Fold:
Amino acid sequence: MSIFVDEHTKVAVQGLTGSQGRFHGLRNRDYGTKVVAGVTPGKGGSDVEGIPVYDSVAEAVAAHGVDATFVTVPPKGAPGAIIEAAEAGVELVVCITEHIPAKDEALVAARLRRDFPGTRLIGPNCPGIISPGKCNIGITSGDIALPGGPVGIVSRSGTLTYQALHELSQQGIGQTTCVGIGGDPVPGTTFVDVLEAFEADPETRAVMMIGEIGGEAEELAAEFIKTKMSKPVVCYIAGQTAPPGRKMGHAGAIVSGSKGTAKAKMEALEAAGARVAKNPTEAGELMVEIVRSLG
Amino acid sequence: MDLFEYQGKQYFARYGIPISAGEVADTVEEAVAAAERVGYPVVVKAQVQVGGRGKAGGVKLAADRGEVELHAGNILGLDIKGHVVRRLWIEHATDIEQEYYASFTLDRAAKLHLAMVSARGGIDIEQVAEEDPGAIARRHVNPLDGLARDDARALAEEAGLDPRALDGAADVLVNLYRCYVEGDADLVEINPLVLTPDGRVHALDAKVTLDDDAAFRHPEWAELDAGGETDAREAMAKQRGLNYIGLDGTVGIIANGAGLAMSTVDVVNQVGGSPANFLDIGGGANADVMASALEVINSDQKVRAILVNIFGGIVRCDEVARGILTALDRVEISSPIVLRLDGTNAGEAREIIAGRASDQVISEATMLSAARRAVELAAAREGHAGDGPANGANGARA
Structure:
């Protein structure tokens, strides 16, 4: 099994007619994802290599019964696009857009919570979600993923998500689902949400979690691992040698004072019973050990 | 973007938050002229983006012209933890009866805004949080509801502010929240927020961090010259629109994605090297971006080897490879480049690079092996660099 998506998930791409939307939307379809529609206001009635384009998400939903949308529109329009999908009743919205203002993200999170509790947002500023062999929504290169499980991956960083997939696939270890939750201050889906889903998924037998400096999401994940998680977890935290007070790219990735350090996160995760690696390669090696021990 | 105190105060003033009369001064003469206008006594305050300036002698009270001359002369040019003071803020001194703390920031875990108020202002709030967490009153603010004045007043009361300060503090909090939301700040902090003997409440300091991602709706930000870079390489990178942080070592690093860039810095350290920088080229890694990135790293005299670590997703490795070759044609790069390319179109990329492989451009299969190779090269070249100017490759470039 997989989490959040599977081989039946029907996907509409919001922004399919843009250059990124087209490239990645078609790539997702080539991977085998059921990309049933595109949405671009004003371009309804056209198509992108056979994928019909609609003016609104509601029209795409009415025509195809969309389960998930892939939002690849610029930062100014992305918050509106997410809410539009939620209003149309879409249950999963995957937003890869980076540089959305934090205030807009907070507002989107508050609206989803109040008005659309049935919609899950993954991202923004994330690589998306892939269930190898079944469904790929986002910008992950499908050929680095290996179907069949038994490992679930959750990551706060885009490229490190690929690195994690790659490390496992190179070792012949497949993945059930890989979720990139994104590095922004207000992620729609958190580590804890994904860990909870992996814990409940019978096919996922171990989890690899990639965190980074800043915030307290990893500490909250540690608390969850300690109290609720029966499956083994391997973690890697990026930014172990980052200088304090300097924002390392992601809006969230900053060590300020004594808060948000990699050391504190690694200690919390270790104390929670997770195996903590010092780099992505070591994380892959630890996971090999664990998977072999699972038999 | 972190604002200087004077910029933060000017930002506060837009939203009706009371501040002391004050002016900016870049010279002793300007400081005196400013003091004459705002009225003695004045406080002469170093404008640096680093904590502890008071202890370092960067904040002085001046009763008259002679004292302004003395203090301004001493503070201008002062080095406070590596930040050289180039600008002063001269403000009319305020009589202080009590010092409070007020701030708004995002509580990421709750996905809500967070107001914090304390009657223990004037000292580091992290210290207060550690010693006496109960002394900080906290309240979440849902962006859909905003902050009502009654709630703001109740928060000030809960924090134990003097009854005479409650109305003034409530007004400040409501306006500070507006400044935080409408002004698109990641953080607004007043420490201290003071109560004067005549019962007024106003901001004696200002810490404002703007959300760079919201710049598109704030054309007025273009005038804010943060000028916080004390590092020439960072200034150069900023000009070129690169996400760069200067470090101290000899291995220049280029990666795509903040996480991978951070991880590359970690791995270089772990295999015994020392990173010269953090540089995330993000999603737009075309030839121009790669050339700019290589230029900035090339300008760093300490760099002895360059590690390019790319995992393609939205970035296509073949474009990165072409970018590197274009950059090599355009810029004379003095250090060898170790490449690790994986992900989208990596096969094509490796073929493109194979056509140009040399001592200058070396491909490695994994992140770890690439880091090891770059660190070895840097160490070997560092050894040679001391032999004479002919081998000091970085210095040899015209």
Remarks:
- Residues 386-398 of chain B have pLDDT under 50 and may be disordered.
- Residues 232-396 of chain B form a domain with the Rossmann fold fold (CATH 3.40.50.261).
- The longest helix of chain B spans residues 367-385.
- DSSP finds 13 helices and 18 strands in chain B.
